[in-house]
Amino acid sequence: MLSSLVLLVAPFALVPAAVALPANAELGPGEDVQVQCEGTTVTTAIWLTATSATQQATGSSPVTLTASASSTAPSTNTTVPLASGYRSALYFTNWGDYGANFQPQQLPGDKITHVLYAFADIAPDGTKHYPGDSWNDVGLNAYGCVKQLYLLKKKQRHVKTHLSIGGWTYSPKFAPVAATEAGRQRFCDSSVTLLKAQDYVLLLQTCRQALDAYAARHAPGHHFLLTIASPAGPQNYQTMQLEAMDGLLDAWHMMAYDYAGSWDATTGHQSNLRPDPSNPAATKFSTERAVADYVARGIPAAKIVLSMPLYGRAFKNTRGLGQTYAGVGPGSIQAGVYLYRDLPRPGAGELYDEVAGTSYSFDEARGELVSYDNVLSARKKAEYLVQRGLGGAVFWEAAGDKTGDGSLVSALAGGMGELEAAENWLAYPDSRYANVKNGMSGA
Length: 443
Description:
The structure is a single chain. The chain is α/β, with parallel strands linked by helices. The chain has a single domain (5-311, 376-437), classed as Glycosidases (TIM Barrel), CATH 3.20.20. The protein is built from nine helices and 18 strands. The strands form four sheets. A nine-stranded mixed beta barrel has the order 1-6-10-11-12-18-7-8-9, surrounded by four helices. Strands 14-13-17-16-15 form a five-stranded antiparallel sheet, with helices on one face. Strands 2-5 form a two-stranded antiparallel ribbon. Helix 2 packs parallel to helix 3. The longest helix is centred in the middle third of the chain and has 22 residues, at 197-218. The protein is globular and about 60 Å long.
């Protein structure tokens, strides 16, 4: 089934902020948060909400935890091995096969190294059947997107899959569990999550130990990866114990987007590499600043994976970058948000901002500006991450990309060079699902 776990516990991607976390969060009588797994395959999710676990989006990007499998030797409790080759990771959403009509069979397996499946708050056997999925198989079996991702792993042995649990509107469900030792242990016996800074470190330690213990029992010689999707907003990462966390993590997926949007008073770039001193309102945040701050605190550049959007943020009735606006337009998937595959908008011209290091489109007649990456800016970002010695790229999310020469995933993969080739994990002899246990034999 899925060879890894990802827990998104802050408002994610299309929300502009990391999380203002409560100073204290405790479970009330009879309240619990629990994920039951077969190895690293989620089989049941039970959520009982604690009323003290309130959160408010306030700043930049979210934080994510990931566990995955590769064929390198198991890590110690304090040091993890660096990957060989660049990461090319891509989110696939469990609603994308409906709303955006993007199916798991369309994932570009030859251009990616990791698939992050978002989000798990549903039955793990899937709700959609594909050709080859039977309604009459004997026993309990996994179908839908989960089965298709397993088959992708069989076909593309270098592709590792990550299961994103929670995230976005599910985030508050995770807040209480990290505050107590019992809660952390209960959850990390099979999964991972996050909360305030010190609890977060303790949680990572518990999860690292749980992953190593699982490998010792069921996957001798394999190392299960633990990563987080970390904020690029200084007001968020400056409160995190980066140094203590780094020894437990295999990679930091830096959420280098949503730097600007409908929550701002002026238009701006949403994923620029650099600031523009001549137009600070257009570059409120920058990837360069975040990378430099992480490295200054001892995070190896090779463990930082640059996140990029496969969507654009729109501003209407504006005169240009750093200017006031009125409205954001209908968008492709939500107000003000257009999938990259739908851009540029009719009548708009694409431009590249050399100073800021990103692209955008502008329709002067209609006064509409959309901030997004195109093939040119993706290639420039590939050059940037190679020059800075970063670990690769990750995209939100698969349904937004174009095919052929317009694909940003392909542009990044080609620009980075050799991709990580560590094999995924397929053996789940203890799974409750018959077709997973037998390795999808015959499929």
